[in-house]
Write a structure and sequence with these properties.
Strand order of the largest sheet: 7-6-5-4-3-2-1-8
Structural class: alpha/beta
Strand content: 5-15%
Mean pLDDT: 92
Radius of gyration: 17 Å
Largest sheet: 8 strands, parallel
Number of helices: 10
């Protein structure tokens, strides 16, 4: 067992600012963001602020990523950005399949899979978000929903090796609601995701980092990170407060 307590899976704390943020918030993070050695810290700001934060943190251990990319390398897609544009900036990651993209912007499983492939082809690390709706959970279909989303990517992805990618489990019913999944619910699903990777032969599951996202706060981070298959967090609203975000980073240390 390594110092991380989970094989070689170093914990991650990632900030998803969504359609929030300002130059003032960027400046606040550059001054006050913790630089823990025991965890990887990633920031996903708006596309408008990605370049400046990427440039500021270029020579540090803090990494940046895009919240979304389009599934073509270039072309007449007004308002979109490509994975290669993000790569050229010096960012390292891109979110794909976030529940808000699926629900509000119509990103189907097929579109998510295509975006995932383009992100990987550009040399970025995809952070694949999967999760079930409240209706799917109450109907006993939570596991089936997540497996379907994983299968969609695996059906079109030539590499099919998640070992160096990242998956974020985010129960849709806990996104922005203030209602986090219990540690037991999150652990059960994340263990099932790891088992899926084993059964499909799509990577070394013991190397795959699986994050939890869904109303993560400093107050519940310690209980969640204590679970064997939770390797860190994709933090939404709480990531807009650098002091609380730093507390979440500190909770991961335990």
């Amino acid at each position: 067992m390594s110092v991380w307590g989970r094989g070689m899976r170093k914990p991650v704390v990632a900030a998803n600012w969504k359609m929030n943020g300002s130059l003032e918030l960027c400046e606040c993070f550059t001054r006050k963001l913790a630089r823990p050695e025991f965890a990887d810290v990633w920031i996903f700001p708006s596309a408008l602020h990605l370049a400046s934060l990427t440039d500021y943190f270029r020579d540090s251990d803090i990494a940046t990523g895009a919240q979304n990319v389009w599934c073509e390398p270039e072309g007449a897609y007004t308002g979109e950005i490509s994975a290669m544009m993000v790569k050229t900036l010096g960012a390292r990651f891109a979110l794909v399949g976030h529940s808000e993209r699926r629900a509000m912007f119509g990103d189907s499983d097929a579109v998510v899979a295509k975006k995932f492939s383009k992100i990987a082809e550009a040399g970025l690390v995809p952070v694949l978000c999967v999760g079930e709706t409240l209706e799917e959970r109450e109907s006993g279909l939570a596991f089936e929903a997540v497996h379907r989303q994983l299968n969609a990517v695996e059906d079109v992805w030539e590499c099919q090796d998640y070992s160096h990618e990242v998956i974020a489990y985010e129960p849709v019913w806990a996104i922005g609601t203030g209602k986090a999944a219990t540690a037991e619910i999150a652990q059960e699903m994340q263990a099932r995701i790891r088992d899926h990777i084993d059964r499909k032969g799509s990577g070394k599951s013991d190397e795959l980092r699986i994050l939890y996202g869904g109303s993560v706060k400093a107050s519940n981070a310690s209980e969640l990170i204590a679970q064997n298959d939770i390797d860190g967090f994709l933090v939404g609203g709480a990531s807009l407060d650098v002091d609380e975000f730093n507390q979440i980073c500190e909770a991961v240390k335990s």
